[in-house]
Amino acid sequence: MEKKGVNRRNFLRISATAGAGALLIPGATASTLNKTVMPEKTSFPMRTLGRTGIQLPLLSMGVMRADNPNVVRAAYNAGLIHFDTAHGYGRGTNETMLGNFFKDKPRDSFRIATKCKPTWPLSDHFEQEFTAMFDLSLNRLQMDHVDWFYVHDLKDGEQVKNERLLEVIKKFKSDGKTKFLALSMHANNPEVIDAAVETGVYDIILLSYNFKLENLTALEASIEKAAKAGIGFVAMKTMTGGREDAEGNKKVNAQACLKWAWQNEYITTAIPGFTNFDELDECLAAVADTTLTGGEKEYLAALCQQEGLYCQQCGKCLDQCPEKLPIPDLMRAYMYAYGYKYAQLSKETLEELNLPEDICANCESCQVRCPSGFNVGRKIAAIAPVRTMPTEFLS
Asked: Which helix (H) or strand (E) holds 204?
């Protein structure tokens, strides 16, 4: 869109560059410009986040992989208001970056969510440890509260309804540390959604939602039931790992993926993890016209037949593995490294798994046969070396 000779991409680059406004306003710096001169926001389609009543644009920002505050600035200046992070992203640097960026912004001009992941089984000191984890996140964010807090990566109904967990997060809310309570899930298990409805505690669910899901019918039935009970839904993993092929060489059509997710009226917003201005431009183009074209539908249908990078997290591999390895988590680590090109997160994921030193040492060949066609043995062999690589060498 042209305006006074500056198109959208150039506008985003200019607004994201520290000091750019100083060329126009004598004596202005990036920090003062943020406070005094705000560019006109883009008008996006909006949806209501369940019973929270919060209105959000269809497009939000997953900040997990972003380490450049200028990209956050470009997204914010373009009109995005919801930014998603977590305690563990970048070993805390992600929350710190967001805290530094938002500390001078009006608190009602953005919505922040963060996540903390319990260690199962819960320790004797879980309540103190989990509270300390969340308090550290708030300290990094330089905020006294977040808009909603996610219990991260819940896998089944038993975890969702754990009484000790529910009591500690309800205290977070009563203490004013979060306005709303939420959970995130990587395995698209309808049981998790149904259990969340039963508790009456969780206001929001963050879930993997994309065109490659094999249990889509059952999942969408649970989503609809929960939405009618007042739960709001945020979508992640919409781009199935970000690459078309199993080796991660060809980028997926981001616009088609986002448009597909938005066809579900119960998905309030999506949080793609763009890390640069070009990727942001792609996402902005998608939300500018959310119509899923015939060509895009054909493209997505063809992609469903390829192996790709997105693990369904169905768990059918677990009983097949003689070593009882957490294969779904290993496949997620593979996606982070080869799809997201974020080896640091891959290593962090692997470190949480307490794996044996020599994975698959007792197997001459992999016996696992993945329903999605994943070459599990090859992917484990490709991801295992990441564990021993020095963090400073990882992207």
From this structure: strand 204-208
Where does the pLDDT of residue 390 fall: very low under 50, low under 70, confident under 90, or very high at 90 and above? confident
Q: Give the other-Cβ count within 10 Å of 129's Cβ.
A: 15
Going along the chain from its start, the domains and CATH numbers come out as: 43-302 (3.20.20.100), 318-393 (no CATH)
Reduce the DSSP state of residue 180 to 3 states and report it: strand
A 10 A CB-CB count for 274 gives 25
Q: Cis (ω within 30 of 0) for the bond into 121?
A: yes
* 30 token code pair: 């990036």
| 138 Rama sector, left if φ>0, alpha if ψ -120 to 50, beta otherwise | alpha
Number of H helices, E strands in the chain: 15, 10
Q: Are the beta carbons of 262 and 83 closer than 8 angstroms?
A: no
State both tokens at 101.
């960026």
pLDDT digits (tens, 9 = 90+) for 24-49: 323 333 333 333 334 455 679 999 99
Mean pLDDT calculated for residue range 44-62 = 97
For 98-137, what is each residue's pLDDT tens digit?
999 999 999 999 999 999 999 999 999 999 999 999 999 9
Q: How many residues does the chain have?
A: 395
In sequence order, what DSSP letters do the residues of 221-284 get, joined into one string?
HHHHHHHHTT-EEEEE-TTTTSBSSTTS-SB--HHHHHHHHHTSTTEEEE-----SHHHHHHHH
DSSP-derived letter for residue 340 is: S
Closest C-alpha among 91, 84, 92, 71 to residue 235:
84
Residues 6+ apart with CB under 8 A from 318: 324, 326, 327, 328
List 62's β-bridge partners, or say none.
84
What's the whole-model pTM score?
Answer: 0.84
